[in-house]
Write the structure tokens for this entry.
Amino acid sequence: MRVLLLNGPNLNLLGLREPGLYGADTLAEIEQRLGAQAAERGVELSCFQSNHEGALVDRIHQARGQVDGILINAGALTHTSIALRDALLGVAIPFVELHLSNVHAREAFRHNSYLADKAIGVISGFGPASYELALQGLLARLRGQP
Amino acid sequence: MRVLLLNGPNLNLLGLREPGLYGADTLAEIEQRLGAQAAERGVELSCFQSNHEGALVDRIHQARGQVDGILINAGALTHTSIALRDALLGVAIPFVELHLSNVHAREAFRHNSYLADKAIGVISGFGPASYELALQGLLARLRGQP
Amino acid sequence: MRVLLLNGPNLNLLGLREPGLYGADTLAEIEQRLGAQAAERGVELSCFQSNHEGALVDRIHQARGQVDGILINAGALTHTSIALRDALLGVAIPFVELHLSNVHAREAFRHNSYLADKAIGVISGFGPASYELALQGLLARLRGQP
Amino acid sequence: MRVLLLNGPNLNLLGLREPGLYGADTLAEIEQRLGAQAAERGVELSCFQSNHEGALVDRIHQARGQVDGILINAGALTHTSIALRDALLGVAIPFVELHLSNVHAREAFRHNSYLADKAIGVISGFGPASYELALQGLLARLRGQP
Amino acid sequence: MRVLLLNGPNLNLLGLREPGLYGADTLAEIEQRLGAQAAERGVELSCFQSNHEGALVDRIHQARGQVDGILINAGALTHTSIALRDALLGVAIPFVELHLSNVHAREAFRHNSYLADKAIGVISGFGPASYELALQGLLARLRGQP
Amino acid sequence: MRVLLLNGPNLNLLGLREPGLYGADTLAEIEQRLGAQAAERGVELSCFQSNHEGALVDRIHQARGQVDGILINAGALTHTSIALRDALLGVAIPFVELHLSNVHAREAFRHNSYLADKAIGVISGFGPASYELALQGLLARLRGQP
Amino acid sequence: MRVLLLNGPNLNLLGLREPGLYGADTLAEIEQRLGAQAAERGVELSCFQSNHEGALVDRIHQARGQVDGILINAGALTHTSIALRDALLGVAIPFVELHLSNVHAREAFRHNSYLADKAIGVISGFGPASYELALQGLLARLRGQP
Amino acid sequence: MRVLLLNGPNLNLLGLREPGLYGADTLAEIEQRLGAQAAERGVELSCFQSNHEGALVDRIHQARGQVDGILINAGALTHTSIALRDALLGVAIPFVELHLSNVHAREAFRHNSYLADKAIGVISGFGPASYELALQGLLARLRGQP
Amino acid sequence: MRVLLLNGPNLNLLGLREPGLYGADTLAEIEQRLGAQAAERGVELSCFQSNHEGALVDRIHQARGQVDGILINAGALTHTSIALRDALLGVAIPFVELHLSNVHAREAFRHNSYLADKAIGVISGFGPASYELALQGLLARLRGQP
Amino acid sequence: MRVLLLNGPNLNLLGLREPGLYGADTLAEIEQRLGAQAAERGVELSCFQSNHEGALVDRIHQARGQVDGILINAGALTHTSIALRDALLGVAIPFVELHLSNVHAREAFRHNSYLADKAIGVISGFGPASYELALQGLLARLRGQP
Amino acid sequence: MRVLLLNGPNLNLLGLREPGLYGADTLAEIEQRLGAQAAERGVELSCFQSNHEGALVDRIHQARGQVDGILINAGALTHTSIALRDALLGVAIPFVELHLSNVHAREAFRHNSYLADKAIGVISGFGPASYELALQGLLARLRGQP
Amino acid sequence: MRVLLLNGPNLNLLGLREPGLYGADTLAEIEQRLGAQAAERGVELSCFQSNHEGALVDRIHQARGQVDGILINAGALTHTSIALRDALLGVAIPFVELHLSNVHAREAFRHNSYLADKAIGVISGFGPASYELALQGLLARLRGQP
């Protein structure tokens, strides 16, 4: 089983940017730890981050037929990008939407998501732990576990 | 560490009601399994379900000073009950909001939550697995784990 | 054929409260007359009134597999209770929504119903006669009559 | 006692159009059956259908002083015609608004009615049976029956 | 100078309908009096009333090149008919919008007009006198009087 | 019979300001001409203009028991001043609202009036002629003329 | 003269919950002090608190014909319960709405009240003193004092 | 293959009305040219224009079982007529919505269409050429051409 | 302790204007009575009324450092004046907002207040008694009384 | 005459993605066929597709002074990109907006277009045929054909 | 070249009021410094501050034909005064709108300006430096400097 | 002191595109002139323009710890890009938002900015001079100048 982890704009700043809000882990550390957790569960994890909406769309297209599920923290694009929504629907790969911070406790414009209604599920607010929870949730659904 | 699991209106129908949407597990089975998972993590889990908003408020009040965290699937009350919000704020116990189904994919009136902005985080859409993810998320935050 | 009549908050005041708006019949008189009309049509009618949303939800759950149709005058809860909606959907019993007064002629917040789009039909404005019309409408639909 | 039954645009297609939604009866059959039911109750029923708003307004004007009540299924004009509202108010004849389908379960623009707040009451969703229920409801109110 | 007076749906009921709101004059009396007032000012007045939007549109088309100005009390169509707006713009004849009652003091849906922003001016609330004021206002503008 | 003419902010610029929109007459000329027209009709006209909302309110208070009707072109205050509304209601003097330009053809924020629903009627768009029309409309109503 | 004091959900936490926001007095202390103040004014005060909407509705029904006025701090139900509104209207007892905190300074969803437009008056923001002010305001109105 | 061309209110003014906006062709010329283009493609074209909503509804009903597709430029009724929508759905004939002018560049109330979501497709802004494009689009879809 | 009582536009009409709504007391009587009540409580009361927003702002500025609290019935300016809000914030004097009538039972535009969220508290609906209640509420807060 | 065809995000998936919704043609096939059709009409067609908003903006800039018209299917960017709008206005090249699917029959957020009001016209819903219709529409307008 | 500096309500409190938000300079100091800066640039600066909307309107009228440009910090009136807008348009003098604080970072009701769309430009957020920037911006535009 | 100047989509067209709206200067000329002005003030200016949101985000990230302030004219992205907002917050560098044209005088969708509430201040409408004003405003704030 193969899973793709996508991170959108500004998530490359993790650990550097507002640690009180997002935690002290860098994105590399999170990706490494999640890769290990995935391996323990027999899952091969690939990772991609970009500040470019188009690059994220391109990467999703490449995943077509190559991965069984996607974990996506689209950052700010969650709230503005219909192109990402269409890319995910176009390749028809199940995905989980995740956020480090609790988006419901932030600005009103972060309460709308162009991805959520097409996701398996959404996880928001657990800091770096959101990644592991999202991986587990994805696997539970793909494997039909309760 | 003690955790309280709260389930709101109609969740006693689980396993009986729309299994395509909510899964085939009964609430008793979910509570039992989650209790076991909690015990493995050194957590004592107590459970309460009610179709009465007032009874849920009363139960939250009783939890004051008795539990370290709350997992709450408030069902329909998520979208209509400010009293639950006030009860959770009044006892000042950290809580996680969870849903079996993906509320973002349902009626518009289910997109608003009176609890979410005051929760640690929100988990939605993973069926019965949402409960275990919520427990893990709560513990990760309470224990300061990444 | 068995039918359950549900009345929500404040309908126990019928006959006492604003007779100009709701008529002079008490709820007991209405229930008795409707029971007789049901019996004439070969229908067994049971009745329940409560001012507690949770008690109404509980009663609907008990009706699961026990009745063929529900008549519901949810009163103020029509406009505020998603829990009642979920209960009715959860037990999958056909129901008719009814009102004594014409809700369209009253405050704007009474124009929304959380039940109506899932009901067989809605009857509003005929005073106590609304109950008999609702019973007939329910039976016509259940029996496939024109 | 004389009653006028008005049907608005497209109701002449009844029985031909979307029978799953509106039933298999033609409008002529419905009018004939309702006429018989009215006669049994000592009521003389006259019927008029038009696809023209203006013709419906003209017919309402003719009814001034000639009928004791109106049953109106204005179809699409329910949601768009203030002229019909003004005509009904202008002749000051009590009326009942009725619909074959449950308008609350359809497009949002069918949830508004320019007639409902001035009607005695509204009946929606019972298929052809809506007509008989509306007649009964009108008579109950005109005759002061409970 | 020739002027056309147009009256929309239900204005044929004038004098019969809600005299407290619209006055006791019939439309024929108003037309006659206005014709006389027009004649005194050297203006030939023609009059047309219909309950049919299409007939009003047709009549406006006929006026093309035949009249110098239009007085229009479109009644309920004021608030719902874009076709009337387009007809008036299509024939490019200056017009005054008028109302017997004060539309600002009535239902919210009467506060919007599809004609007003393209009219020379609007007169509302003076009962039958609104007609004479509208005629004077139209003439003042057509003749460039202060 | 005594009538008070009130003009609000910026109307002292009349004749100087945007003559294409408001006409070339100065306010003094308009007041003089209207005074003459009033006199012909046996009416004593007093006039007041101010750029100060408070001064207009004060002037309305002074009119209490002194005048039979008010003509008011409140200018920009039409859309922003509840104090003027309260003043007019407080002295209980019938009034007509008038505008030189057609407010419906201007910015959206000019479409709301805090005065209109309490006025006898509204006249808008006839340039300086709006004043005379308003006077006539007021007199027709006060004198019960058709 | 008899007065009923009603407190809604979470007000039993008073003194325990957010003292900075609500004060350090417990509800029992407030009720006791208000009872004494009432007695000084020749008024018999009875008190009831519940976290259950239905129980509050039931209590209001019991008050019918038994009390001359009601003081109600409905807490969160102020903003969500039409059933409470209907209960208060149903028993036709004059009431005053009160709040400890200034609801206008809190979340937007606390700015709407389903009770306020039917209350004698509203008092908000004076902490425990709101109760005494509400009692005085009620008595002033019931006794016609300035 | 038979196709019906429908034109709504004011389109009989084509060529006469605002040629800068709608072109210099009369409707007769457009119908004639389109008839020739249809004939070249083996299609029999019939044409109907009316300023009456009801007449358009009647004509659509007559088309039931008689034509394979409809081209409709409903003019102002596009934005106001649910009756036309229901007529088109009632006869279940595929249709294309077309406009001479670009409705998106005009008043906001022209941005809504009651027909568009049920049409095969929509063409707007190409002047008289919109008709030929609509015919081609309809045929491409009916014949399954790319 | 010094307190300033401010009254806004039209409150000089008190006792003259709509006594059914506002009571029969004149403002002078209310000020006199409140002054006496203040004196009993060891408070020096000064009073100011104006129909001019600017004059009220000026008076608030003069109060800077001179008074310990403000009672303000801003009348219509409550709903329209940000300048008053800024003045009160600028001088940083605690204030209570009060109204004679119950603003929640009046027009929708009276439901918004530019002052309320910055006030200690709000009192509405008790007629002239609102002044005394406001004074007590202010003192309770300033003196830290329960 | 030179024309540029622009395709936005995810249109490179054509033929692969949701053929029921978008048809079985690949983008290369569509471009090739359209190129041939253009050539027949004496038009040189160049094509560009990108998933990057910035790349589309860059390409539009390059077209300045190089092409006579643009056909643009901006996909998801239609609804979110003001930058594309500004680019098209900046180079001042006439353009036609086109869509494969009927956007009016899809999610509400697809009903808004940042391009449409500045386009010559819009074509939506004809599958791959939309491209040819758009080309014809563009040419008709550029060449002044009816 | 002559320039008028206008300051609206509460700006006389500058230096006294919330220095953290508005800076420690008094208005007199700001006016003096700006006068000197203007003089260096060959500009004669006159200054006026008032808490009265009417006085500001009067002052703008006096400026007609006397000054070449206006700098206006209307304070709270920015968001509420259409009269100021009309005054500025009436005298047709170019103006710059300025604010000390960043209005976009404050309450939502400060995000609307009745002046901004008619200003040359807007400057917001630079504290007392906003005045000098506004002067420079005005001069750059009046003198056609880049 | 180092300052970064960022220009967003389509600003590379400056001088070429709509000179009436944006001025005749090219971006290179503006950058050169601003660099000189910066140098005079002892500031080192670096410049970057891109039509790609992602490239702008990347460039902001590079500026972290390298510059003391940012001047940003984000063009169309001002109104659509939350990613830019997050980038600016992520690097925690003070910034000024600027626009050549007066955005308040343009389309409604340009009135919202995702940057403004986090900026030091905003400058809009002064053409190329906006750049110099923004530089001065930034320096005044960074250096604590009045």
